[in-house]
Backbone:
């Protein structure tokens, strides 16, 4: 069974640092250069200066400086935190995702209770490892799925609250020993990484070289698979010319156009992959035979085998349609989002999905809580 522990959180003091809404940021891996520049220019204490620094040594300097100045303050006692994220889904309906934030012991895949579902890239992990060595703190959490229950909402004002990109995150501190044990008891394995594979694997490598018990944990937001607010967006593909020929591997059904194409796709059974191909001159419903394994039935599986040029990704079918109609892309490949059951099946089968197969929404906001490597 996975080992979970409370932690003494380090967090912004809004009385010194200013409103938390201006201090938080998306995870480092979805922050491009232009957004980083805007965040840095807007607020001298924005967390992006720690998570996407010009240099790891600069992040370490700021991290210690902000603590000395009281910008960041440390909790006196260990606690776990109930996280509630309020947001609107793709259908516009309000949703709430609840998680438990705690320290999770890192173990190599196959040796513990934690499983991945997607591949990672060495270059990204090297950059994050240099930052961990310099700062020696867990700056952003990993989103983990588990088979247990969802923590109840606490009937008191939250201890931490921030809104970023129309997502409001609220956190309640749980410090009573019995309540901590009850909250941690909700988490049941196996655990599947939903988002943050690079963060998890970098934390594991850092622990392997650091060797201390303090470095043996990653900061995790643990969400029940049955949580009603758990949402996976699709990852539609946009591609440039030349487009590959769809040969005998596929069953191609011409459609009247983009209107209703996604409905046709959603009505197909999930036992084989399929996608909608949109071009300026028409649309096709394309079906393929599964190529074996739990990942073989995913809509992204056959697309990963096609020699597509200039591939970009979007969760919005409307954006994909506009790009094709305007000439911004030669074609779009619309797919169904994988289900939570499919993600779990791939992970527990020791398989990985093609790149950009899942988009768990919303991304966890960075800057709400930090966990230094000193416990």
Residues:
């Amino acid at each position: 069974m996975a080992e979970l522990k409370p932690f003494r959180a380090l967090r912004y003091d809004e009385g010194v640092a200013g409103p938390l809404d201006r201090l938080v940021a998306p995870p480092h891996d979805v922050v491009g250069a232009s957004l980083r520049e805007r965040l840095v220019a807007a607020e001298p204490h924005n967390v992006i200066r720690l998570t996407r620094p010009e240099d790891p040594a600069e992040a370490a300097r700021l991290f210690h400086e902000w603590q000395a100045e009281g910008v960041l303050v440390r909790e006196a006692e260990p606690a776990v935190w109930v996280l509630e994220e309020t947001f609107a889904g793709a259908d516009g309906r309000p949703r709430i995702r609840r998680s438990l934030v705690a320290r999770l012991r890192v173990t190599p895949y196959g040796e513990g209770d934690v499983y991945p579902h997607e591949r990672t890239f060495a270059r990204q992990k090297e950059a994050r490892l240099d930052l961990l060595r310099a700062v020696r703190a867990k700056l952003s959490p990993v989103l983990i799925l588990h088979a247990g229950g969802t923590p109840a909402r606490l009937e008191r004002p939250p201890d931490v609250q921030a809104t970023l990109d129309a997502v409001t995150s609220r956190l309640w501190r749980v410090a009573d020993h019995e309540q901590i044990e009850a909250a941690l008891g909700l988490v049941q394995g196996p655990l599947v990484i939903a988002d943050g594979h690079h963060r998890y694997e970098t934390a594991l490598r850092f622990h392997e070289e650091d060797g201390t018990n303090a470095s043996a944990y990653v900061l995790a937001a643990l969400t029940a698979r049955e949580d009603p607010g758990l949402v996976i967006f699709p990852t539609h593909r946009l591609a440039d010319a030349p487009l590959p020929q769809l040969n005998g591997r596929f069953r191609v059904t011409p459609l009247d156009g983009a209107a209703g194409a996604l409905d046709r796709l959603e009505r197909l059974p999930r036992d084989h992959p399929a996608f909608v191909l949109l071009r300026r001159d028409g649309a096709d419903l394309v079906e393929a035979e599964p190529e074996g394994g739990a990942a073989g039935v995913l809509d992204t599986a056959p697309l990963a085998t096609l020699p597509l040029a200039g591939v970009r990704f979007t969760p919005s079918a409307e954006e994909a349609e506009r790009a094709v109609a305007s000439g911004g892309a030669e074609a779009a490949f619309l797919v169904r989002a994988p289900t939570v059951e499919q993600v779990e099946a791939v992970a527990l089968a020791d398989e990985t999905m093609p790149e950009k197969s899942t988009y768990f929404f919303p991304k966890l906001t960075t800057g709400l809580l930090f966990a230094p490597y000193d416990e």
